[in-house]
Amino acid sequence: ADFPIEILLDVLVDIPSYPQWMHECKEAVLLKQDGELKRELYFAQGVPLGSPDRDAVIRAITTIDWDTTRVETVLENIADHPYRHPVDENARERQTMNTFKGVWDLAKLDDNRTKVIFTTYTDPGGFAPKFIVNKVIRKVSFRSVKGLLSIAKQAKYQAASAKGDTKGAFKAAWKQYRNEDGIAGYQRDVEGSMFLESRAETVIEAPIGVLREV
């Protein structure tokens, strides 16, 4: 995508904008926000051929790695959430999804280009033929990325490019202090604090799915 990563991130955290660009998003309402990177939202997805639209309360958690300038937002429905969205009597019926999972993965290529990956999985619940669900899933990922690139051109998001230098206290360089058993340990100073920030890196001979389960 020919956009700075800061602009695309500003779009992704603008929950009310979702119906303008996410494929068949009927409604998106911010329910709760914990700081800048954790949100809960109500999300309604249109379904074709007269089947009820689907909805869910979704938790969105964003992590930012300023060393690699990479942003990941993980989306997952919150099962049995007590929130029930009021629906106008003239609107189509909505049915709660069994499962919704998604990941927005943004990686900076240079100051004006960003690699964008959107992965999604949905089990809509209720009666929904397999071929219809799979067709919708393909469209959701493909057309949502297309919509993201379109809305990012709006002036209100273009102003976000000025936010690129927001690393704050995390600008100090990492210094390796240990390397043992294939694990590298790093540390760096944190501005305004007497305490260090630390991290450890390794390569594990296991699929990523196994590590997610752990």
Overall description:
By secondary structure, the chain is α+β, with helices and mostly antiparallel strands. Helices cover 21% and strands 39% of the residues. It has 5 helices and 10 strands; from the N terminus they run ααβββββββααβββα. The strands form 2 sheets. Strands 1, 2, 3, 4, 5, 6 and 7 form a 7-stranded mixed sheet that branches. Strand 2 and strand 3 form a beta hairpin. The longest helix is centred in the middle third of the chain and has 22 residues. The two termini are 34 Å apart. About 4% of the residues have low confidence.
Q: Helicity, in percent?
A: 10-25%
Distance N to C terminus: 34 Å
Number of strands: 10
Radius of gyration: 20 Å
Q: Proportion of β residues?
A: 35-45%
Tell me the number of helical segments per DSSP (H or I, 4 or more residues long).
Answer: 5
Mean pLDDT score: 86
Largest beta sheet, briefly?
Answer: 7 strands, mixed
Query: Rough shape?
Result: globular
Classify the secondary structure makeup into a structural class.
Answer: alpha+beta
Low-confidence regions? 164-171
Order of helices and strands: HHEEEEEEEHHEEEH
In short:
By secondary structure, the protein is an alpha+beta fold. It is 21% helix and 39% strand. Strands 1, 2, 3, 4, 5, 6 and 7 form a 7-stranded mixed beta sheet that branches.
